[in-house]
Design a protein that fits this description.
Elements: E1 18-25, H1 38-44, E2 54-60, E3 66-71, H2 74-85, E4 99-104, H3 143-155, H4 157-161, H5 191-216, E5 224-228, E6 234-240, E7 243-248, E8 253-257, E9 265-267, H6 273-283
Antiparallel strand pairs: 1-2, 2-3, 3-4, 5-6, 6-7, 7-8, 8-9
Length: 288
């Protein structure tokens, strides 16, 4: 989430941090833009992937410099985020004993700044022994942009789902055979379209095979996550080398590939997908 100017609070002395926002870094909930799984996201910040996770507090010091304070009091940050999301004021002032590290820079984009201090900038090199953190490049298609796209689909599932006509899926195809990837109604007479279709289908088959392998050989923590959806359904999120998958356990799935810039590939239910999603949900990490 992103805070507002009113959310900024001072922690007290000349080394005060004016808090602008905070995020969770846990196996079940982490900024996916930082990595395909929890250990990869932690490695971006040079943190050990502790099972309990961390809270990341992003703010500015009195000179306006960007800092990311890592704390081990996850519940403190979770309560603050929940309050802010509900439009409530909540002061986030971590106890010094909970601070794990103070890292220069921000690993994520922050759209607000602290009133009354200089504009956000990286701390002076004399104040730190490591390069400042900076957000991943999302201006061009790649892993970071692909994962952000999957985040958006999970957040706006209904909007994306209503764009899909189920009649466009091939009824005879299951997860073993691209799981109902929409048929090319133009036929083989348009070679370019046929070639693109073949590439998409090959990519879908590869992703489903890799996702299926997670059931037998669990991947790094956080590569498969399960969260609440509507009714008894769950929203599944799985990531792997070059791909992201978003699905509802009672519905279809969407796949994004590094090699297919900006493409969102729908995957129909078919006879195999329901079982795959059920198996992934059983082994997925869930919010506590």
């Amino acid at each position: 989430m992103a805070g507002t100017d009113e959310d900024a609070v001072a922690t007290g002395d000349e080394d005060a941090l004016y808090v602008l926002t905070a995020v969770l870094l846990t196996p079940a909930k982490f900024p996916s833009v930082l990595g395909d799984d929890y250990p990869e996201a932690c490695a971006t910040l040079d943190l050990a992937p502790l099972a309990e996770g961390y809270g990341l507090v992003l703010g500015q010091d009195g000179e306006g410099a960007r800092w990311t304070v890592v704390i081990d009091d996850v519940s403190l940050v979770a309560v603050a985020i929940a309050s802010w999301d509900c439009g409530m004021e909540h002061e986030l002032s971590p106890d010094e004993r909970t601070v794990v590290a103070a890292l220069p820079g921000w690993p994520l984009d922050v759209a607000v700044s602290t009133p009354g201090v200089p504009a956000p900038h990286d701390p002076s090199a004399e104040l730190t022994d490591r390069p400042p953190l900076s957000p991943p490049d999302t201006t061009t298609w790649g892993p970071a942009q692909r994962r952000l796209g999957a985040d958006e689909i999970a957040l706006q599932w209904a909007v994306w789902r209503e764009q899909i006509d189920d009649s466009g899926f091939a009824p005879s195809e299951g997860a073993e055979d691209a799981s109902g990837d929409a048929q090319d109604s133009r036929g083989e007479d348009e070679k370019e379209g046929g070639d693109e279709k073949a590439v998409n289908r090959a990519g879908i088959r590869r992703v489903l095979a890799e996702a299926r392998s997670y059931v037998d050989a669990p991947p790094p923590l956080g590569r498969v996550r399960s969260s609440f959806a509507t009714g008894d359904a769950r929203t599944l999120r799985a990531d792997g080398p070059g791909w992201s998958l978003v699905a509802r356990t009672d519905d279809i799935a969407f796949i994004l590939l590094d090699e297919e810039p900006g493409e969102v590939l729908p995957v129909g239910r078919g006879p195999e997908l329901p079982g795959l999603l059920e198996a992934l949900d059983k082994m997925a990490v869930r919010p506590s």
